[in-house]
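REQUEST ID: PR-0412
SUBMITTED BY: lab tech R.K.
PRIORITY: routine
TASK: structure prediction, single protein chain
INPUT:
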Amino acid sequence: MTLHAPYRTRRRLSLTWRVIALSSLLLVGLVALFTWLGHDNLTRQFQESRHQHHERQQREIRLALQRSAETLRQLAGLAAASPRLGAPLAASNGDQVEEALASQWPTFQLEAGIDEILVVDAWGRTMGHWGSGQSERGLPIQAWVQRVMDTEIPITALRCSMDCHQYAAVPVLMNGESVGLIVLARSLADVTRQAREVSNAEVALLVTSPLESHDLPEERHLDAWNGYLLALTRQEQSLPILHKASALGPISALLQSPLQLQYQGQHLELSAVRMEEDADRRSTGYFLLISDISSQLRAINEDTRTLLGVGLAGWIAAELMLLLILLRPMARLRRIASLLPTLASGRFDDIRAAIPTLRHRLPDEIDVLEGTTLELSHQLETLEQEVRERGNQLAKRLEELAKERDFVNSLLDTARVFIIAQDSRGRISLVNAYTRAMLNLDETSLLGRHFVDVFEAGSHSLVGAFDTPQQEERMLQMPDQRLHTIAWYHAPLPSGIDGSMSRISVGLDITERKAAEARLTWLAEHDPLTELYNRRFFQDALQKALRQKSRGAVLLLDLDQFKEINELSGHHVGDHLLREVAETLVLNLGHRGVIARLGGDEFSLLLEHADENQAVQVAQYIAQLLESLGFMTAGRRHRVLASIGIALFPAHGDTPADLMASADMAMYKAKESNSQHWHLLSRAENAKDELQERVYWVDRIRNALAEDSFELMVQPIMRLEDRDVKHYEVLLRMRDADGSLVPPFNFIPVAERSAQIVQIDRWVLRHSLRILAQLQHRDISLAVNLSGQSLHDEGLKQYLADELVDSGADPHHLILEVTETAAVTDFSTARGVLQGVRDLGCRTALDDFGVGFSSFHYLGQLPVDYIKIDGSFIRSLTISSESRVIVQAIADIAAGFGKQAIAEFVDQEALLPLLKDYGITYGQGFYLGRPKSINNTF
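STATUS: complete
OUTPUT:
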């Protein structure tokens, strides 16, 4: 078949080779890109891992410094708590001071690594000194004495000169007064060893300050960093590296990111960890860590070369395969391309004759293209026939449209709506009879006028485009001067011959409907009694604020004693009070946010863009407003008080339901508070879960108290000297419905928050005394724990006295335990309660002693018979030298005050010889005896 001249072209580079060339360029570029990305990714991962390794090194070393300083402060506190130290130090008797600590110095030196102990009186004079004697030189003793005497708070410091030492200064108390301080010093040898173990690198200790001595070798001076090396490992290899690194940049840069450098063919990384400065900022110490990263960098380069080689091999293989695939299909494609121009001339039979009808079993895209070309020839032939048929149908449709137009014209004049037609300039071109009647104007007065001039009513319309359907509402002033609301629907009309746009506007009078809707809308959003917003509107406003990702607060207000006002003065008085409260809130806080009445005597306030301080200030302001309200009725004055719960969003909930639940929980906590009328939830409180869990356990505790569903268990406290047991601690469990025992940590915290713990304490006391009355002839004593709230129970002493009489139990066999935390928190109350029960003949014990080292100087003033050493020290006694020093010190102090010591958490045989050597009388723990029910025990 001969083609027209425009379609005959000269042979050039074929499409196949163009595809091969372009794909080769693309694949080579991709190989280069992926190789670069792979190398960059490996390098970045390596840098990130090294940066994380550097941060981990900094954390571990700083944590080691902090632990070392805290241990040093604890040891100084133990030394300061020696009962024989206060009196001679107050009298400035140096000989007695040295005698008081002479026995402890070997223990501190050998087991705790203490280099020096210095005892100073209140005037800064040295009363005792043990150790090397170098720390006293250059120390700001007077400044430490002044600071410690003023604040009575221990201090720790790190100072570096010829060596780096940690110091801890602790006040020595006597009768509640500071009479001096004791200073302990320890070198950083252990910390340096831990730094090398943690980092697996060479470690150096650098101090930046003017040299105080010329004893150090000159090569250890780093002039660029204005410092000198106190210590370093593998000096021959490490020292030249540090000199080279000091010339590359300041030491401060190493604190942010490690420095990588090459030295003698090795790739090295140098990082620094800064220690705290001296108190007088004379010098600053750094740990320098040198790591060899040569193997990691060689691995990255080797991976990059492998990636590049694989990419090039894949490129060559892909191009060869592509060439084999394209040769035959492209020949068929050229044949189809030569046939397509004949479609324009309408020679459909020629197309069908040139393309074979035989199809492959597995057709490809070219087969689809050939089939599509054949199908297209059939469709184009059919389309020519359909065009002729559609022309005939269009003529018939035009006749039908003319009949429809006549029908529409008749509707225009009978419809009870405004119907206006406008031209492209907005001028009225048609108006129906209803519009003329409502406006009391004839057609001549309306045609040709602008639509907005007739129906504007003083407000500018937002509808201006003619090409899309639009809706709007306009106010229309009628001939009787009344304003009506008209709902307009504007629709475009078909364009005229000149292409100009026009539209038709249909208006419906909705004045009465709008009035009814406004009333219904107001009732749907407001409370009829107070005219405030109602719960539905408030929740919608809160939901809107949450969707906008806004921050703010919800205040839930509940009137206290509102029920009593209703019952005493009648519901009409209660309604009057609600209206006055609403008026007061709107008058003073209406500008701050949405105020609503949720129902009954509950009000709420939504404060957007308010932080917790602003929310608390508003709550305090509301409480002041209501207290000053002074509500009077029938000669009776009612004091208006409210409990206000505060919840912040989104911190306390991301839905209205969760936020209202949080505010409701906070409001009930405010009711429980005796100190203020408001409560702000903390960020850790989860209102929804906590309320459900709290209500469940409150009911369980109430039922257990009513039905005696608690069960007592006992754990033996063994006398270590002869393994005799005459002393048991009473433990509490709750009996579940299936007979299993519920441990106390499930219900005791809820009982403490719901004030049920006092009732539980009394239940345990009552049942323990009944059991003790049956066992006391066997010389058995029972120890009962008292909660911190029971220390404030004014009726506890009388209740205990009555139960002792009713049960017939010997008070000497009853031991009441209180925790160290409860005793120290309210020392005077705890001392009074403990003395009161001792006056009844009972014995007392101080539980969990030694956790905070804060009650040593109170120990002699608390009327207790036993000291129970906290189990955290006992469990680590065999592996921790520091625990051994602390436990021995506690035992010595207890013995010095004439009290017996009990070791808790004794879980292995190896602890017993140590406890006996320390002079501890009793032991308690799973190794000596697990908790059992009273019936099984006795």
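NOTES: The radius of gyration is 46 Å.
REVIEWED BY: pending
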